Amino acid sequence: MKPIAALLILTTLAGCAGSLQPSPMYGFKPSSEAAACRSLWTDHLTTTRSKRQLDYESDLVLGFPYLRTNRYLASFKDELHDDAVFQLWVSGLAAEAREAYLVETVRSSDKLEMRAPALECQAALIEEELSQPNMREFLKQQIDVRDDYTVWRRIFGIYPITKIGVARGFEKWKKDNLPLFGVAIDEASLSETSVVFEPRAQHLEIRNTNSFKQMASLFDKHNIEKGMGISLPQDQNFTTMLDFYAPIWVVDKKSVADQLGKPVLSVDDADISIAVDTNQPVTFARLSYTRFHGDILPQLTYMIWFSDRPKTGVFDLLSGSLDAVMWRVTIGKDGHPLIYDTIHACGCYHLFFPTSNLNRIPMPEDLDLREEALVVAKAPHFEPDQRIAVRLASGSHYVTGLGTVPTSNTANGNSRDQYDIVGPLVAFEDTVIDDAGLRLAPVEGFDRLQSIYGRNGLIPQSQRLERWTLWPMGIRSAGAMRQWGNHATAFVGKRHFDDPYLFERAFEYATP
C-alpha cells in the first residue's frame, strides 16, 4: 500500500471534487485513501482532455473515473444477478480503464511514474466502493455508451426528408457494385494482375483434421466463467488462433494505392501526418465477442491499410488520403466460422457473408428505407489446409469476391507476398492493449508515441468530400477512417459495427 500512502501526501480531498464523483444522494463517504485515489484518476482525465489525448475506444463512466465501458460490456448491466457475475463484469470495466489510462499517459508523456499507484488505486476503489449495494446500483445506472449518430445533425439536416435521397443512393450503389461480386476465388482464378498476400508465420502444425476442435477448445479454455468472455491471454495459443483464421488478401493491383502497408507517423510543419509504408505489409488483428441467441461467441477482426483511395474524376466525393478494410470472422462453438462481415474503416460498405450454418431472418429494416443487413453471398467452408480468400477491387478496395485457396505449403507454385499479423500488445502490469500499433505508433524522428486517431476517434487527414452531402444522416465526418468502437455502419437508420446483438437481429442458427 506504499504507493497509495504516498499519494495521500500529494493529494487533498478538495482535488477530487467534480462531475466524475458519485452523487451525494447515495450517501457514500469515501475514506481518505479512496478520496486520494479518486483525485488521481479524475486529475488524469482532466489533464488528458486538456491535452486532447483522450482515447475513444471505450467510453467514460460518469461518477467512476477508474472504469470505462463499451457496447459489449454495457449489454450485461441488467443481468448482474449474483456477486460473481458482477465482479467479473467490473473486471472488464476495469481492464478497459487500465488500457485507456496506459495509452493516454504514454501519448501525453504525463505522470508516467504514477502508473503503479493508479492501478493499485483502481483496485482499492473497486474494493471499497463497489462492495456497497447502493454504489453497485449507481454504477449500473451510469453505464451508457455514446451513440455515433448526432441528433442535432439529423434535426437540422431534415433527416426525414434527406434520408430518402440517401436511401436511393444506396440502392444505386448496390446496383452498380454488387454484380462485381462474381466468380468465387480459387487457386486457378488468381490473375496476373492480382497481388496475393498471405500470413508470414503460419502454424502448419495445427492444420489437421482436428483443427477446428482444437480451436474450439482453446477458446473454451480461455473463455471466462459464467459465459462472459472478456479477454484472452496473449500467449502462443492466441497467436495460433489469429493465424488459423487469417484471410488471404487478393488485391486487384493497378497502382501503389493497392499495396497494403503499415501506417507510419511523421511531423510535417508541426502537424503529425500519416503515410502507409508499403514495405511493411501488415494486418492488424483483434479479439471481440458477440451475443448470439444465448451464446457468447468470439470474433477476430483483421484490418489492412492502403495509402489512399485514388480519384476517379473531378466530382469524386469518395476519394482521399488513407483507406482501410476490416474483415471479421465470428466463430461458432464448434470452432468453425459462423459468419463473416466487412466494412471499410469509415464504417461504410457493411456486407455480411453467413455460412450455411446460419439463415437470414426477416427484420424491420427489410420493409422500409433503413439499411438492412445486406447478405451478398453465402461464405464457403474452408478445410484445415485452406484459407478464406478475400478479393478487393483496385482503387475503391471494395470486397468483390470470396473463396477458398490452399495454404502456401499446398499452393501450386503461384507467387504470394506475405504479411505480418500485428496483434494486441501486453504492456505494463500485463495490461492488454488492442490496436497498439495504431494507438501507440512511433513518430518518425521523435522519441514519442502517438495515435493515428484524433478527437472522437477520427483521422482528420482521411476526411472525404462526401461529409458535406451526408452530414444530415448524423454521422461525424462521413467517409473518414475511425477508431474501433466508433463505426456507425448505416446512413439511413442506426447500426454499429460493435453492437453485441448485431447478428442476432438478422440471423438464426440453421435447423440441422
Helix run count: 12
Number of structural units classed as domains = 2
- What is the rounded Rg? 23 Å
Helix fraction bin: 25-40%
**N- and C-termini, Cα separation:** 57 Å
Content-based structural category: alpha+beta
Mean residue pLDDT? 87
Low-confidence stretches: 5-19
Residue fraction in strands: 15-25%
Main beta sheet strand tally, sense and closure: 10 strands, mixed
User: Order of strands across the widest beta sheet?
Assistant: 11-10-9-8-7-15-3-4-13-14
**What general form does the structure show?**
globular
Number of strands: 20
Protein architecture, described:
The structure is a single chain. By secondary structure, this protein is α+β, with helices and mostly antiparallel strands. It has two domains: 141 residues, no CATH class; 359 residues, no CATH class. It contains twelve helices and 20 strands. The strands form six sheets. A ten-stranded mixed β-sheet has the order 11-10-9-8-7-15-3-4-13-14, with helices on one face. It has a two-stranded antiparallel sheet with strand order 1-2. It is globular, with a radius of gyration of 23 Å. About 3% of the residues have low confidence.
List its traits:
512 residues; alpha+beta; 2 domains; ten-stranded mixed sheet; two-stranded antiparallel ribbon; 20 strands; globular
Question: How do the helices and strands line up, and which of them pair or pack?
Answer:
Blueprint: H1 2-10, H2 32-50, E1 59-60, E2 68-69, H3 71-74, H4 83-108, H5 115-129, H6 133-142, H7 151-156, H8 159-177, E3 194-199, H9 211-222, H10 236-245, E4 248-252, E5 262-268, E6 271-277, E7 282-292, E8 295-309, E9 320-331, E10 337-344, E11 351-354, E12 358-360, E13 386-392, E14 399-406, E15 417-422, E16 425-426, E17 432-433, H11 436-439, E18 441-442, E19 449-450, H12 467-470, E20 507-509
Helix pairs in contact: 1-2, 2-5, 4-5
